[in-house]
Every structure is written in C-alpha cells, then in structure tokens.
C-alpha cells in the first residue's frame, strides 16, 4: 500500500468513526471537521442547512481553511479525530 492509499484509508476510517460517534461534539470541532472533509472531497457546494446562521458558520470554516490542499485536509481531519475525540475516550 503506497502513502496515498494509506492516507485515503486512514481518512475514510476517521470519517466513519465520526459518523458513528454518538456523543455530542463541540461546535468549533465540528466546523473544522466539516471544512476539512469538504476540502478533502473537493466538494464546494453550498452548505445545505435551512438555518442561515449555520450556513454562515460553515462558509466561514471553509474560508479559514481555503489554503489547505486536499492531502493536507485529510491529514488535518485525521489528526483532529485522533487528538480531540479518540484521545478522550
């Protein structure tokens, strides 16, 4: 398995972990994860919330992470999951 495949596998595992996680997470962490996920998946569609304030927070999170590459977004997502969620279990 090469480095890119390993990164994609770890990213997918981190995403699945977050999707299966049932305890509440802090909003700032969720926004960072959201931005890194969107960048990692090159998905720049409009945030889909019916609440304008939530859309504004999501858009702001994306703006703050705008200079992050796809690969870096995956790495940052994995690091956040490991540091902020898994470490506290």
UniProtKB/TrEMBL annotation:
<dbReference type="InterPro" id="IPR014352">
    <property type="entry name" value="FERM/acyl-CoA-bd_prot_sf"/>
</dbReference>
<feature type="domain" description="ACB">
    <location>
        <begin position="7"/>
        <end position="89"/>
    </location>
</feature>
<dbReference type="InterPro" id="IPR035984">
    <property type="entry name" value="Acyl-CoA-binding_sf"/>
</dbReference>
<dbReference type="Pfam" id="PF00887">
    <property type="entry name" value="ACBP"/>
</dbReference>
<dbReference type="GO" id="GO:0000062">
    <property type="term" value="F:fatty-acyl-CoA binding"/>
</dbReference>
<dbReference type="InterPro" id="IPR000582">
    <property type="entry name" value="Acyl-CoA-binding_protein"/>
</dbReference>
<protein>
    <recommendedName>
        <fullName>ACB domain-containing protein</fullName>
    </recommendedName>
</protein>
């Amino acid at each position: 398995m090469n480095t890119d495949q390993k990164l994609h596998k770890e990213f997918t595992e981190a995403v699945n972990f977050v999707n299966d996680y049932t305890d509440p997470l802090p909003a700032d962490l969720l926004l960072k994860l959201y931005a890194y996920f969107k960048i990692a998946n090159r998905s720049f569609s409009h945030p889909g919330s019916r609440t304008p304030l939530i859309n504004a927070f999501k858009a702001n999170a994306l703006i703050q992470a705008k200079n992050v590459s796809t690969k870096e977004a995956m790495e940052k997502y994995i690091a956040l999951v490991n540091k902020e969620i898994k470490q506290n279990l």
